[in-house]
Design goal:
Elements lengths: L1 H20 L4 E5 L5 E6 L5 E8 L13 H8 L11 H8 L3 E6 L4 E8 L3 H14 L4 H20 L4 H11 L13 H6 L2 H11 L5 E7 L3 H12 L22 E8 L4 E9 L6 H12 L5 H9 L3 E10 L3 E10 L5 H17 L4 H17 L4 H15 L8 H6 L3 H11 L5 E9 L12
Parallel strand pairs: 2-6, 7-11
Antiparallel strand pairs: 1-2, 3-5, 3-6, 4-5, 8-10, 8-11, 9-10
Helix pairs in contact: 1-13, 2-5, 4-9, 10-13, 10-16, 11-12, 12-16
């Protein structure tokens, strides 16, 4: 075991310099209709990953239409005149490929992994559904019902996601980050076919898309193929880009959330900046030291040392425009959430007054580095990083500056961001009140 640890530390030391110097051979091409294409050749295997990032997610929704972004992700597989419903996925899977998609607060992404010879076919199918997607009342109602069911098992009947939903709903007053990507049930049930058709017309066009192709391809030939299938599709750059000015929180907010739960739980969230803010690197490192995993300060104190909680932790999760840092604990029988809060806030206050140790700081930086290397083992993961950086920050090259920015984080930086953002006036707390029956009229009603 000691030898293994020494080897791992040695590899990490080697990786530090490589990570800092890392820059991939990426080619960028912008077509006349506004679509951005990023290509990266990797001929190590005869495979290709293709991702299309549409810059639209739940933050583009409004009350009354929440969940439409996620619904439309499903509708994109409903076929065209050339392809029947779900046929797109079946064609790729039949050849051993993988087809997937996901929606977040800020974007909707369609992913395909396939053999090199299938590239032109995939581009043909992708451009076909962008131009000729077939949405009718029947498949719309079917997928709307599917989304309602999905909300049931991912949020309403989840042991933790519904608590996160309440945190967001109480922390944000003006910003659409206040609802989950899946949307509120009443909104989903009342979405209309016309709303979806207007949504498609507004957001699903080349000027709102970044395509990333990584793998066994020739860049020049790939550009020609993409031009062939996408070049004549009109682009509309006049896309709504809402930037919501969330009012400054000037006092702690608290809400009790009644639900059937085996444990008393609390979660506390603090407003933090979004992607691209200079503080995000120090906040990430701080979050790892304070609440990231079983060796973090919060977990060690509440679970190991004082045995107040069965589990505890937290996360720093920036989104495009803003984010929340949150910490939580599920208390041991016989202990209260008040005890848990007291311990968590004491650990937070230490971050403001005492510098983290050199060992803690380096360990957190090593975690960032290790996650990066473990996360770029496939074409798909490289495409994911490139697409995210280009979509969020407008320039994929900023990805290659992140190593230096993480390396530059100091103990003083961590103290500064803790003082700046982890203030009780900037805090929203949700306390789970254990009910012995399903939610009804008592307390905060679940949607």
């Amino acid at each position: 075991m000691k030898k293994l640890i020494v080897v791992l530390l040695f590899l990490m030391a080697l990786a530090t310099s490589a990570y800092a110097a890392m820059e991939w051979p990426v080619d960028k091409h912008v077509f006349g209709n506004g679509m951005v294409l990023l290509t990266m050749e990797d001929h190590s295997t005869p495979s290709v990953s293709l991702e299309i990032w549409f810059h639209v997610g739940s933050k583009n929704e409004r009350p009354g239409s929440t969940g439409i972004s996620h619904l439309f992700e499903h509708l994109m597989f409903m076929g065209t005149d050339k392809m029947g419903p779900e046929e797109y996925s079946k064609i790729i899977q039949k050849s051993g490929g993988i087809c997937n998609a996901y929606t977040s607060n800020d974007m909707t992404v369609f992913q395909e992994d396939f053999g090199t010879a299938q590239l032109e076919q995939v581009l043909d199918m992708e451009s076909d559904r962008l131009q000729h997607l077939k949405i009718n009342e029947k498949n719309f109602l079917t997928e709307r019902s599917v989304i309602c069911e999905e909300r049931g098992f991912t949020v309403d009947n989840s042991p933790f996601a519904d608590i996160m939903e309440q945190l967001a709903a109480n922390a944000w007053l003006a910003h659409p980050y206040q609802w989950q990507v899946v949307g509120w049930r009443a909104d989903i049930e009342n979405l209309t076919l016309r709303q979806c058709q207007e949504y498609f017309k507004t957001y699903y066009n080349p000027a709102n898309a970044v395509m990333v192709i990584v793998g066994d391809v020739n860049t020049q030939e790939t550009v020609k193929l993409v031009e062939k299938y996408y070049g004549k599709i009109p682009g509309n750059p006049d896309i709504p880009r809402p930037l919501y000015d969330e009012p400054e929180q000037r006092g702690e907010r608290r809400a009790d959330f009644h639900k059937m739960s085996q444990l008393p739980i609390f979660i506390a969230g603090y407003h933090v900046p979004g992607e691209g803010n200079t503080d995000q690197y120090a906040l990430d490192i701080m979050g790892r030291i304070l609440s990231g995993g079983e060796s973090s300060r919060i977990y060690k104190r509440l679970v190991y040392d004082e045995q107040l909680a069965l589990f505890a932790g937290g996360n720093y999760g920036p989104r495009e425009q803003a984010g929340l840092f949150y910490a939580y604990a599920a208390m041991q029988p016989g202990h209260t959430t008040a005890e848990g809060e007291k311990a968590v806030y004491e650990e937070i206050d230490k971050m403001k007054t005492l510098k983290v140790t050199d060992e803690e700081l380096q360990k957190a930086k090593n975690q960032v580095e290790a996650e990066f290397y473990m996360g770029i083992q496939s074409n798909e993961s490289k495409a994911e990083l490139l697409g995210r950086t280009q979509t969020f920050l407008g320039d994929y090259k900023l990805l290659f500056q992140q190593a230096d920015k993480y390396a530059a984080v100091t103990a003083d930086d961590i103290m500064r961001v803790a003082k700046t953002y982890l203030d009780s006036r900037n805090r929203t707390v949700i306390t789970v009140i254990q009910d012995t029956k399903p939610s009804g009229t008592m307390g905060m009603k679940e949607e």
